[in-house]
Amino acid sequence: MLLPSLEDGITVLDVDGSRGVPILQSIVLDHLLMRDGPAFWVDANGHATTTTLSRIAPSQRLLDRIHVARGFTASQHYGAVCDLPMAVNHCIQESTTEDSLRGQQSTGHDEDTSPYTPSLIVAPAIDAQYRADDTLGEAQAETLQARALAKLATYAEGYDIPVLVTRSKRDEFAAPVETAADHRLECEQTRMGPKISGDDFETLLYPVDGGAYYQTTFAYWRQLLAARATQVGVEPATPSTPTQEGVGTGVTADGETVAATADPLLDAWTATGTGGR
Asked: Which parts of this chain are annotated as the region Disordered (predicted)?
């Protein structure tokens, strides 16, 4: 209700006005709560901060399922992206071996998830290291970023999982990130909290003390009333457009039928025989 579900393919998350570290981490943790399997995080610019993760994670076991690689240069970042399948295989071998030694069989939340194969890949600030590396020319940096995006798209298709990315800036250099994305989420800060919008999702409710919820967007009430009208069989009324001649007729207190304009006060003020004017 408050956080979007991630679909298979590349999803780009744009956060208005900040890096959006808590929002990014909240979406990742929410996804891991709903699906089995580890998450593989190729970090840049310190988005995988353990301080924030530990504060918002409901359990330490959830954090144990996040595997982080950090790239401090463009070549390191690209190398971490290329080595991701090797990290996945190593994680699967370790997990299956540990479960065999314990004599336990892990079960998934549903038939479509596995406790061993990846459930999510995260690559925040996907453009940061490529745009900041002084050892690369502009064309080389763009090419290396494009190859990293192509690798992530291959992993998304091969593992049938979501890949969540962000970008440090919305400019021409980072335009290929949005081009490669299958889905887009945008988060804007409001007085009531972060509002996330996507193709099939929009944050409409905000939690308050006591377990209640409230919202600030007219879209929610419009949807709620439209659904209620459909339920009771009431068709939405189409508002008529007033003309200069009037919007219909009315009856005065004396029983006289008069033309009504768009302004009821004007009708009463100009009516003949009422002592006005």
From this structure: 97-118
**Amino acid at residue number 40:** F
First-to-last alpha carbon distance for the chain, in angstroms, is 58
Nearest to 23 by CA among 71, 50, 56: 56
| Element (DSSP H or E) covering residue 106 | none
The 3-state DSSP class for residue 206 equals strand
CA–CA separation, 182 vs 36, rounded Å? Answer: 23
Look-up: residue for tokens 């100009």?
A: 270
Instruction: Dig out the tokens for 149 from the structure.
Output: 């995006």
Q: What's this model's pTM, rounded to 2 decimal places?
A: 0.76
3-state DSSP assignment of residue 139: helix
State which H helix or E strand residue 43 sits in: strand 39-43
Query: Which pair of tokens denotes residue 223?
Result: 């949807």
What's phi and psi for 52, nearest 5 deg?
-70, -40
Residues in the chain: 277
Give the bridge partners for 39, in sequence order.
66, 120
CA distances to 17, 85, 153 from 41, in Å: 23, 12, 15
- What values do phi and psi take at 88, rounded to 5? -65, -45
Query: So what's the pLDDT on residue 152?
Result: 98
Closest listed residue to residue 23, CA positions, set 185, 161, 156, 180: 185
Q: At what angle do helices 74-82 and 138-159 cross, to 10 degrees?
A: 20
